[in-house]
Amino acid sequence: MRTILFAGGVALLVTLLGTRYAIRFLIRRSFGQFIRDDGPTTHHTKRGTPTMGGIVIIIAALLGYAIAHLATWTPPTISGLLVLGLVTSLGLVGFLDDWIKISRARSLGLNSTAKLALQTGIAVVFGALALMFPNERGLTPASPAISFLRDLPWLALPIPLAVIWIVLIISSWSNAANLTDGLDGLAAGAATMVFAAYTIINVWQYNQSCAWGDATAQCYEVRDPLDLAVTSIALAGACFGFLWWNASPAKIFMGDTGSLAIGGALAALSIFTRTELLMLIVAGLFFIITMSVVLQVGWFKVTKGKRLFKMAPLQHHFELLGWQEVTITIRFWIICGMCVAVGVGLFYAEWVVGQ
Q: Among 212, 208, 258, which Cα is nearest to 94's?
């Protein structure tokens, strides 16, 4: 438990204090955000706001994890390292995307093909590694089975298909977080709640682990749940501290550097905790916003030019309806909180019913 507290506290302090210096550094070098011309006109005032703040989130999570293990003299686990490796790798893809936007003075970075290729390559490597490194009980960080509240044995996949499934999850969640990062503080606040929820889930899985010898039908076959809790709280603390500077009016944006990293973390945690489909509920806000884009595109094609929403993602629809940005963000946070509560409630209820 001390390791968990250290990780969250260090990550929180790093972003809370360190983001100030990142803002100054980025302003001196004119690393500001470019705004889409076809977006809400209210966003034009944000032009030039420092971006790539996701670098601070990633560094804070890494430092929180590392210092917590050093302070308590506990070794890291392959599960924790793989999660943070995915976070860092996708953050680098986002950084490249942000850098192209800044260096070429435009609102578009990597083209979609290059971005998808890089994400897929990283996801394939992650998926392959996640199905390796069995521990003394034969558990690998990821499982070849599709999971909801735990692995669904009748949905076990061959290893090649399991890797493809993992790639799909990572691609989906990294893009979902990217779409959610459209208003000041929205993605950072929502991610904080989801990561905090997964800290609770991981601690519970650790306390009810099948590894303790008195295995019951309801124990959890999850590798390294306690270290996943350390990883989750480090990410939660990093996002929470960053929110101080990212809340409206934002002094800095996380950029694709942060949103892709956060999406990767969501994907990895769902895979390693055997709660892949439950993440659709816990991170329901991210899912809703992503589906608004899917529905918008589908409706536009089916109706040959008509729009289901004034603009997608969904948060921009409400902006065009006249809602204030702060109002949308707070109401979406409330929705996120309800999704988190329902998801954690389902997770706990399944254990209680099985007793």
A: 258
DSSP state of 311: S
User: What does 102-161 look like in DSSP terms, one character per residue?
Assistant: HHTTSS--S-HHHHHHHHHHHHHHHHHHHT----TTS--SS-SEEESSSEEEEEE--HHH
Dihedral (CA of 104, 109, 114, 118) sign: positive
Helix (H, G, I), strand (E, B) or coil at 10: helix
Tokens of 349: 């209820």
Residue 266 has a pLDDT of: 98
Segment-wise mean pLDDT, segments of 10 residues, the chain, 355 residues: 94 96 86 56 62 95 97 96 98 93 73 90 97 92 96 93 97 95 94 98 94 75 96 98 94 94 98 97 97 94 89 93 95 98 96 79
Q: Locate tokens 């949905």: which residue?
A: 155
- For 58, 277, 337, the CA distances from 11, given in Å and listed in that order, are 9, 28, 22
Is residue 278 within 8 Å of 270, Cβ to Cβ? yes
The Cα 6–Cα 79 span in angstroms is 19
Q: Among 140, 2, 14, which Cα is nearest to 69's?
A: 2
As a whole number of angstroms, the distance between CA 54 and CA 46 comes to 17
